[in-house]
Amino acid sequence: MPYLIVGVDPGTTSAFAAVDLNGKLIASHSIRDGGIEKLIESIRKTGSVCIIASDKKVSPDSVAKISASFNSQLYLPAYDLTGQEKLALTKGIKFNSQHELDAAASAFKAYRFYENKLRHVNSVWRELAELKEKPKISLDEIKHLVLTGYRLSDVLLLEEIKEQGKKAVAAPASKSAPTAFASSAKAREYAAEFERNLFAIAELKKQVSRLSTENQLLLEKIKSHEKGISHKLERDSEVRRLNSKIGRLEEYISLLKRALFGKKHATEQKQSERAKQIELKLKKVGVQNEDELEDLVSDYRSRN
What we know:
single chain; 304 residues; alpha/beta; Nucleotidyltransferase, domain 5; 5-stranded mixed sheet; 8 helices; 5 strands; 69% helix; 11% strand
């Protein structure tokens, strides 16, 4: 089965896209209401996973779970991929859904991140082929080991030790056969021990990488939480400020109402006193009410 860099887009409709170690898209698939278990099953049928990739700087927990299920490296971009960048990464390729496009963009982004390392493996492989020292292990398997935490020099050295052990075992019998047998057995033992150590180192590197990624995700979540708290505090502070302003405005309105009421009352009182003065003057000239005042005015106008 081919070795793969797999982009995933989990959700109600989950999707994955698989890119081989030469950067070629070999599969994309989406699953509705299947959960990550069916997604993992579909990926497993497609090939051997080297890298699981996401298009988000802070990926969902499900992405980390998918990576852990394959014991693979997890690639997260330094920033959330934009729609424009996703289209650029997948230019010329048609997909059945946006989810598959997102997954493919994640895979291509991860491939570009590791591309220089893979090119270096290609370069060393060609040099060894020219020297007729090409190892028995396949080029893609070397790339896979390098992507999963092995150093290229260690992989090549391990293959050389294994090959020497095989040659020692295949050596023709002679008077020194016991010595040759002991030597070959020691070579195999040394090769096995060396391979175990390399595997242990690679596994530790994976754990360090995984813990580093988890730590980064937790830091991002803490920052987001702190930002939310900060916004809440700012909002509460703004609410207190506005409530205080409302209180002052209500107090000012109350003062205005009292001032207006007092002015109106004073005006009404002044008008009342003026009316009383007029009434007294009219009584002095013999006018007792409004009708008599109108008769007096009419009489005055007729005379003049």
